[in-house]
Every structure is written in C-alpha cells, then in structure tokens.
C-alpha cells in the first residue's frame, strides 16, 4: 500500500489534526469537522477510485450532517454551567442598585451603571436617586425607586 498517495489516509490524518486542534482551542465545532473527515477517509479507503471532487462533496455533506446533529444534541442536552448568565450582561445587571443621572421624567431617563450610562424606564425620579434594576425592555433598564421595593 502506497500510503503517501492514499487519499483515505490523508483524510484520517486531517481528522486527527482537527480533533487535536479542537482539544487545544475548544470551541465545540472542529470536532464535527473531524468526524466528517474521518467518515470521508473511511469511505475513500473503501472506494479508492473516488475523485477529489467526490471526496470534497462528501466531506461537505458529512460536515453539514455532523454539525446539524451536534446542534440538535446541544439544544436537547445543554451544557450546565455554574454561571448561567455569564454572557448575558443585561441579565447580570438585574438586582443592582444604580444612580439616576438624568432625571426620570415621563417614565424615561438615564442611570449610571459602573462607568457607563444606560437609558432607564420607570417611575419619575430626580437625579441622584438610587434605584434598583428590576428588568429590561427594548434595550432600556426597568428601574424602581428603592422605597417602592420595600412597600410591596
């Protein structure tokens, strides 16, 4: 067997290289391409007369299939995390106490969050009032004055 000219072995080497790269740079995507390359390599070993065009089409098709299976798997079995709001900056703001910087009048104003300002929706409040973030709507923070929170 002339392994240098055997496309099936090159596909299997590519599969291993993709899998190792996935381990070094985790992104949960290259593994699906590694599986597609391994399938393409196995098929090419059994059908050595398969043209390079056929191999590439097969790789593209198997890539689509494995990515679709992976997408469904992660939708049905989501990865648990100790911080479910890790990448949801707005959700992480809920519950924080912030300061009104532009008076909330007619239900709209601005609040200081950290070193930035956000538009805010809520009961009228003068500048300097401390309010609590209770939610979001259309890119604005929903706030309530601190006094209202204890009276309910």
From TrEMBL:
Please verify whether the record's keywords include Transmembrane. Answer: yes
Keywords on record: Membrane, Transmembrane, Transmembrane helix
Which locations, inside or outside the cell, does it occupy?
Answer: Membrane
- NfeD-like C-terminal domain: from which residue to which, for each copy? 91-145
**How does this chain sit within the bilayer?**
Multi-pass membrane protein
Kindly state one GO CC term assigned in the UniProt record: plasma membrane
Q: Where is the signal peptide?
A: none
Q: This chain belongs to which protein, by name? A: NfeD family protein
This chain's source organism reads Stakelama tenebrarum
Q: What is the lineage of its organism?
A: Bacteria, Pseudomonadati, Pseudomonadota, Alphaproteobacteria, Sphingomonadales
């Amino acid at each position: 067997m002339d392994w240098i000219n055997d496309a099936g072995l090159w596909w299997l080497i590519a599969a291993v290289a993709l899998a190792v790269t996935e381990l070094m740079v985790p992104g949960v995507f290259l593994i699906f391409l590694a599986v597609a390359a391994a399938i393409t390599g196995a098929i090419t070993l059994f059908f050595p007369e398969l043209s390079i065009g056929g191999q590439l089409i097969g790789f593209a098709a198997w890539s689509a299939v494995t990515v679709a299976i992976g997408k469904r798997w992660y939708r049905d079995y989501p990865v648990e995390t100790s911080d479910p709001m890790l990448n949801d900056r707005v959700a992480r703001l809920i519950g924080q106490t912030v300061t009104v910087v532009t008076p909330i009048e007619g239900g709209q104003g601005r609040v200081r969050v950290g070193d930035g300002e956000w538009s805010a929706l809520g009961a009228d409040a003068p500048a300097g009032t401390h309010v609590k973030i209770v939610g979001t709507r259309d890119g604005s923070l929903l706030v309530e004055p601190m006094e209202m929170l204890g009276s309910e």
